[in-house]
Amino acid sequence: MSAASGLLTVDGVVAGYGAAEEILKGTSIRVDAGEIVSVIGPNGAGKSTLLKAIAGLVAAKKGRIVLNGTDVTAAGALGRARSGIGFVPQERNVFGAMTVAENLEISGFQNPSDARSRSDALYASYPMLAQKRRALARTLSGGQRQILAMAMGLMNAPALLLLDEPTAGLSPKAAEELFEAIVALNRGGLPILMVEQHAVEALEISTRGYVLVSGRNSREGAGPALASDLEIRRLFLGG
Question: What is the rounded radius of gyration, in angstroms, for the C-alpha atoms of the chain?
């Protein structure tokens, strides 16, 4: 399977964590301008590895990764970030011993001169961050930490935001609020590629979705159509 051209094209990528280990076994996806795209699948399917491969944290052994027409396959993580990829990992995504303001400041490493204006804009978008700007990140609730992590990913004005399991460990209310924040970001023009454990909820807000199984493409289609698919619901809702 080969992904058509888009803002992001991942074409036949093979990747893993050891010399012989292959987690992704020819995975192909695309993200077009203005889209939310969700990647779902069972545990061990390679979803997080896919995002890490796109972000440059795991090297692609085969295949191509193209952003805005530029092949970034050989670029490292910093090069990918400078090309416009923002990545929010699932774990260890904030610095707990630093304040909210310091977390934002350190995240604006690409354009330090713009860091103040970017953080001010994020404070305006997320008033909670403004209220907690002097609080240590470790004192925030789970939902608040995820908002901070997402804001950190926005500090360099990415062309594409990657979110790895953004609602993991959150209460249903906090997860709903985070999904609303993701939709609002996308309506503002930011394309988003998301791996998410709440598969049906993620697909419902997505333009398109992909199902990975054992590192390979299994299904793809419009997000709401996949969300209403009985087989998808059986797999992810247990009946």
Answer: 17
